Amino acid sequence: MPTGIVPILKDSATRPIDFTHVPYHVWPWVDKDEKIPKPDYPPMVSGYYDDGEVKYGYTFATITIVGNDVPIILGIEPVKEHSEWEPADAPSDSKAEVVARLLGSAQQYVALDEVLLDRGFYSSDVYAEVHDRDLIYTTPVPKYEDDYDVIKEIQSKEGVDAAVKHDVPLAIDGDVHHTAELLYVPATDEDADGNYAVFVTNRDHVDPDEITHVTNSYSRRWDIENQYKSLKAFLPKTSSKDYRTRLFSFTFAALLYNLWRLTDYLVKVGMDRAIRSPPVVTARTFVRAVGHSLRQGG
């Protein structure tokens, strides 16, 4: 991201890393039953689940400021995922490589402290990449059948609704890289398996009375969901198959999003408004102002 758009911050802060998808509304198959894909299907398009439905689109990973700061996108990485219609040896990006590039981008501008990872980044390689940078990570565990016994034990104890498993080894190529903590808390989603959520973090020895604080802190990552909704409103409409056009569109939308957030921040400072209060300058107002300025400039 250009340095003119990203603020240089001196303090440490929390940065979520997440995936988002830009839909591509074209079926990848000539004949799915016969496993015959379209020969000219864009290689950067992959399948993903949205509300239980398979969809297709371009994948991007972002790293963003959250917490008490202005929510600014610090880095964007295009992601090449392997799709079922591609040959087995088709190239794809490892999640650890994507995270490494995002962290490298962000650390040019801010002092990182903690990284909140989407469940899609659940991987020992990813955790090793974050841990090796002396950063704290926290992420939910997507599937945890191995932990059902722990959950049953929690549920069997009166007055206990959370637990922690200390010093869980995380291995790379069969060797222990570092140890982590597994945190068990009641799930906010009633459909969750066992009505419990499991998180993994590399914090040092989380005490039982700290569990709720750590897992509640993860909720700050949901700023990203609102961010993506706003960002996609800035996306130029295109039907181009040229990936360079798609990448430019997403990056341009991210820059507009950052400019909007920074403009709103400056207005709030001038009005002595709380930084995390609802926007004074709405996204729609900002887009209209930018459009008017561009038309005036010819």
UniProtKB/TrEMBL annotation:
GO molecular function, one term: transposase activity
Superkingdom, taxonomy of origin: Archaea
Pfam families, alphabetized: DDE_Tnp_1
Record SUPFAM superfamilies: Ribonuclease H-like
Gene Ontology biological process terms from the UniProt entry: DNA transposition
Signal peptide residue numbers: none
Transmembrane segments: none
Occurrences of domain Transposase IS4-like (ranges): 98-259
Name under which the protein is recorded: Transposase IS4-like domain-containing protein
Organism encoding this protein: Halococcus salifodinae DSM 8989
Organism lineage: Archaea, Methanobacteriati, Methanobacteriota, Stenosarchaea group, Halobacteria
